[in-house]
């Protein structure tokens, strides 16, 4: 069973930086597109950034130019470098992955979420 393990959240002052990590763990799988989402209190979960296998990224307008998503395919890990943080970036950040798992009977595609990591930006 593949799992996503997130780390790197915390408390930072406005204007500061944080880097989140998300590692896909398990065996006999490939992580395809991966993404970061966030959910602030009382709000819906929203897309922050995505990255495909080739490293092409897509960002929401609210973080474009401040956040950078990258991946290390050898480690099945993605990163979210967050700079110039604002109080409105405060949220629980979730990692998401499209997984292809391989068994003796073939392959299976499914989508999984991490447990979330809290990012708090103080003004």
C-alpha end-to-end distance:
40 Å
**Rg for CA atoms:** 15 Å
Largest sheet: 7 strands, mixed
Number of helices, where a helix is a run of at least 4 consecutive DSSP H or I residues:
0
Q: Based on helices, strands and strand pairing, what is the structural class?
A: mainly beta
Helix content percent band: under 10%
Q: Assess the beta-strand content as a share of residues.
A: over 45%
Low-confidence stretches: none
Mean pLDDT: 96
String of helices and strands = EEEEEEEEEEE
Annotation, overall tally of beta strands: 11
Give the overall shape. Answer: elongated
Q: Can you lay out the helices and strands and say which pair or pack?
A:
Blueprint: E1 3-7, E2 10-13, E3 18-25, E4 29-39, E5 46-51, E6 57-59, E7 67-72, E8 77-82, E9 91-103, E10 106-113, E11 117-122
Parallel strand pairs: 2-11
Antiparallel strand pairs: 1-3, 3-8, 4-5, 4-9, 5-6, 7-8, 9-10, 9-11
Write a brief caption for the model.
This protein is mainly beta and 123 residues long. The chain has strands at residues 3-7, 10-13, 18-25, 29-39, 46-51, 57-59, 67-72, 77-82, 91-103, 106-113, 117-122. The strands form 2 sheets. Strands 2, 4, 5, 6, 9, 10 and 11 form a 7-stranded mixed beta sheet that branches.
């Amino acid at each position: 069973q593949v799992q996503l393990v997130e780390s790197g959240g915390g408390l930072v002052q406005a204007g500061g930086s944080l880097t989140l990590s998300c590692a896909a763990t398990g065996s006999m799988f490939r992580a395809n597109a991966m993404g970061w989402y966030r959910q602030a209190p009382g709000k819906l979960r929203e897309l922050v950034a995505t990255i495909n296998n080739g490293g092409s990224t897509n960002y929401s307008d609210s973080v474009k130019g401040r956040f950078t998503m990258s991946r290390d395919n050898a480690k099945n890990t993605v990163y979210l470098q967050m700079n110039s943080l604002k109080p409105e970036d405060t949220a629980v950040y979730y990692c998401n992955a499209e997984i292809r798992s391989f068994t003796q009977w073939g392959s299976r595609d499914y989508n999984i979420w991490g447990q979330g990591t809290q990012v708090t930006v103080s003004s």
